Amino acid sequence: MTMPDDTAANPDNLRRGMLDELWALKALHTHAVAQAFAAVPRHLFAPEATPEQAYAANKSVVTKRGPDGAALSSVSAPAIQAAMLEQADLRPGMRVLEIGSGGYNAALIAEIVGPTGYVVSVDIDGDVVERARRLLTEAGYPAVRVVHGDAEHPIADEERFDRIIVTVGAWDLPPAWREQLVEGGRIVVPLLMRGTTRTVALDEVEGILVDRDHQRAGFVAMQGLGAHEETFLSLVEGEQVGLRIDGPADTNPVALADALLGGRTEAWSGVEVGGTEPFDDLDLFLATRPGRFGLLQALKPAVDAKLVSGWAQWGAPTRYSDTGFAYRVTRRVPDTDRAEFGVFAHGPDAAQLADQVVADIRTWDREHRHSEHRAHITVYPAAIPDEALPSGFVMDRRHTRVVVTWSTSADHAEHTTATRG
What is the pTM of this model? Predict the structure, then answer.
């Protein structure tokens, strides 16, 4: 009789497998971060999940939900945590502030900065704070200070930090974060920009926060004073299809609903992408073009009924007007593993909207597709006047002005007037 082999489910084996996967995903780049993942027992910080679930490289573990079922707190996927820790460029002896607690990420930070370093983790939710304190102590990291409070305010009784790592989706960066950062320090933050999120590594340079790297990610939204409400314009009864926009409603959802049911216009760009080739920057480029922008979102029944493309299940970049909208889709190129970018558009101005999005796709392909021509994200204080900003797309927030510029092969030889979102 053969007994079942449980060695594969052993946490140590699962942790080694997670490490191999993180290297394969290119989420890991340095041995310092890899050693932290090898040392910290992730399953102890995710008792809600099985060890197999806890060590899945691309899976987060929800640890608290609200009355509506929405996730309020989670242990982020290892791949995202690894990428952000690499972005942070942590060194032994550093002082690090983590905004948004869970315990595991703070333990990873503590491993990297070592016994001469110092880690503070703050969270607005008392339940999350107590949980993080308990799990950190049980896992052997009692030196991490876990604080209950709103990170919109400075942490009391603390000196400045070399690094601030934000683990919740932030629409704005409050002054407290800059006040707590050393000169030349770095903030790594999941920054929300017109419905899209990028983890951005921002270095402090003479009072300005300058992008050193950014990567696509998704996070639980900020709570407290820093919370930001998006608007969901329902286009189908039961909210099966809707347009999610950044800020208050600025169009009539009834007109857009009529447009959705009134037929579809298709336009194709001729721009193709390989089966595994990322195109994150295309969606960010579409989000930072002038004009009204949102994400078309749909539940599976609406996709199955062919009301909208399957891309709407993940949030399709959408340009809209008072009477119509056009969103980015793809179609398979026959006999290849490639896909072509195109647009589905609805409404009386469908053709015009579709042409605009197709033109933007072609511009991205021609001028910005390669990594050296990516977006650059810079965060200025809100008081900076227009004339002091670089050319680019400006997003005004309560505390800051976020500017997204796109380099080209002309290396900014020609500057354009800043546009505001």
Answer: 0.89
